[in-house]
Amino acid sequence: EPFVADEYIERLAWRTPGGGSRGGEAFDPKRLLEEFVNHIQELQIMDERIQRKVEKLEQQCQKEAKEFAKKVQELQKSNQVAFQHFQELDEHISYVATKVCHLGDQLEGVNTPRQRAVEAQKLMKYFNEFLDGELKSDVFTNSEKIKEAADIIQKLHLIAQELPFDSLMDFCCYPLSSPGKYHDLECQLIQEFTSAQRRGEISRMREVAAVLLHFKGYSHCVDVYIKQCQEGAFLRNDVFEDAAILCQRVNKQVGEVFSNPETVLAKLIQNIFEVKLQSYVKDQLEEHRKSDAEQYLKNLYDLYTRTTNLSSKLMEFNLGTDKQTFLSKLIKSIFISYLENYIEVEIGYLKSRSAMILQRYYDSKNHQKRSIGTGGIQDLKERIRQRTNLPLGPSIDTHGETFLSQEVVVNLLQETKQAFERCHRLSDPSDLPKNAFRIFSMLVEFLCTEHIDYALETGLAGIPSSDSKNANLYFLDVVHQANTIFHLFDKQFNDHLMPLISSSPKLSECLQKKKDIIEQMEVKLDMGIDTLNCMIGQMKHILAAEQKKTDFKPEDENNVLIQYTNACVKVCGYVRKQVEKIRNSMDGKNVDTVLMELGVRFHRLIYEHLQQYSYSCMGGMLAICDVAEYRKCAKDFKIALVLQLFDTLHALCNLLVVAPDNLKQVCSGEQLANLDKNILHSFVQLRVDYRSARLARHFS
Questions:
Q1: Where are the alpha helices (DSSP H) in 133-217?
Q2: Which of 459, 460, 475, 570 has the fewest CB atoms within 10 Å, measured from its CB?
Q3: Residue 237 has what DSSP assignment?
Q4: Mind listing the pLDDT tens digit for each residue in 613-633?
């Protein structure tokens, strides 16, 4: 612990008798001073003793430091001597090594010619045996030494090839013996390799393959290996899975047997593709090529997909430098004859299949498609602009049928989806956008033109005239289904067509074609605005049948028990149904546009209807109640303009009941101040008391 002088003094004083109040003793300063003096002397003696000890240790340390420095110097000198000896030894070793290398070169220079001479002597000996026609050497008679015999035969065969023809004629027996022996030995080696492969002796196979590597029959050895590998490998129905398993097994083995495993494995794969797969593909496709286009396309897509998947698995193996190109060429060699005219088969099948789906649907409805004359888009737009009430053409009774089918649409889209998938897989990358556009054109023709457009034309032709009674407005059902179908069409356009054409010039062409289709359909949907005339006509029939003159001029003013008229109830019920139907049939801005048009016409109808009657005081109150109910109905439109029109109409109806003295005040109110005075006057004239001089005077 650190030394603290104050604490030390305190402890010393506490231990000294009379140094404090301990134990009730009195304080004795002299005794405390004496104790301090004695303690100081003891500390001085202790300090001197410690100082002498420190000096002694310092002297000893200095002495040991000098001895250590001297010892280090001696070690440095010894190290220098050892380093000099090491350098001398290294130089001596280098000198000896140089002498040894030189001697080795000399020995090699003498030994190499000697070995060659010995080998040449052996070859001459074996050559003489061939000349004599009798092979006596153990190397030729012992089957265990077939490797050594093969080496000798190979060397003699090479020598024979280098000799001129005249020299060969001098050794007439050699040409008769050596080539035959070469071939026989080659056959023996191949047979030995075959036997070893059947026994599963990898080491023996590797040994024989190494010997055959220098023979002409090495490629035949590889062929035999490939043939035997495939024995019993294709026993299941799935030739592609069998091929993958076979290549996986051979890949593990081929590196242990051959010195060029990638070449052998590539040759095996080539054999599988050109023999097994090509034969299998031909059997599967030729059976349906001319008789069943649907099955042919399905098989072609399935086989091509499985072949490319097999190729992807084979990419894991070492097949040389450019294995991607190698495998692509193999796939192309199998399918080239089928892919050249693929798109023509696809378009032909899609056309016939789509026509059959549509015809089957119309047959199920007992409907014979008819030709409905239509003008151009500009003519249709002109008719919409003019908003005429001319009939669209000969009226067709559809009996409530929209001639649109979700099932038909799903089938057409499913067929097209599968066509897009096949197109993506089977088309050449350069032809992909063009082929995809042709498939899209088929979809447009049969789905948009032959189905949706025909249904719209039929629906337009079936719209009843505005004066028809109990007319069924099925065109809104057509609009609803057409809208749903087009959303499905647009989804397939984005999900399946766009990825195929997104980076090609065909993109703008497809977008323009889609835009034209949308524009044409929207124009025909706009023509269906004549349906609103039918709705207004239905309302007119309801009002004419249900509204009575006595409703607004009751015989007993004091005995009116209804809140609003029966005509009002039925009209509001009808309008609410039509508003809901419009909302269900359309989406987006089209809903607001149609509802605004219907709301304005609805207001005009009620406005004109109210001006056909005279109103007593109680009748005016009932008219106000009717208009209030119409206004509630108008709120369902959720269109500000329509609600504003009915608010104004409600304010006008107040003129039917207000006291004559308050007419000017009501007319100058916020809602009526901006209206034409003639409109206000026309409503005031509907009052039964209008002829009274007092009322005429107040309003003038």
A1: 138-141, 146-162, 165-170, 173-199, 202-212
A2: 570
A3: S
A4: 888 888 888 899 999 999 999
Give Cβ neighbours of residue 235 (< 8 Å, ≥ 6 apart). 242
Contacts 24+ apart (CB under 8 A), 298-301: 300/335, 300/338, 300/342, 300/422, 300/426, 301/421, 301/422, 301/425, 301/426
Tokens of 48: 């001197």
- Torsion of the alpha carbons at 271, 274, 279 and 280, rounded to the nearest 10: 80
Give the single-character DSSP code of 448: I
Cβ pair 339, 426 in contact under 8 A: yes
* Amino acid identity at 59: Q
Both tokens assigned to 448? 């948009």
Report the predicted TM-score, pTM, of the whole model to 2 decimal places.
0.61
| Helix, strand, coil share of the chain (percent; to 5) | 75, 0, 25
The winner for highest mean pLDDT among 130-144, 455-469, 476-490 is 476-490
Measured CA to CA, the distance from residue 464 to residue 466 in angstroms comes to 7
| Radius of gyration from C-alpha coordinates of the chain | 56
What residues pair up with 694 in beta bridges, in sequence order? Answer: none
Spatial neighbors of 231 by CB under 8 A, at least 6 apart, are none
Residue 206's identity, in one-letter code, is R
Model confidence at 375, pLDDT cuts 50, 70, 90, reads very low
615 beta partners: 687
Contacts of 700 (CB under 8 A, 6+ apart): none
Write down the architecture of domain 551-698 according to CATH. Up-down Bundle (1.20)
pLDDT at 129: 58
pLDDT-above-70 percentage for the chain? 79
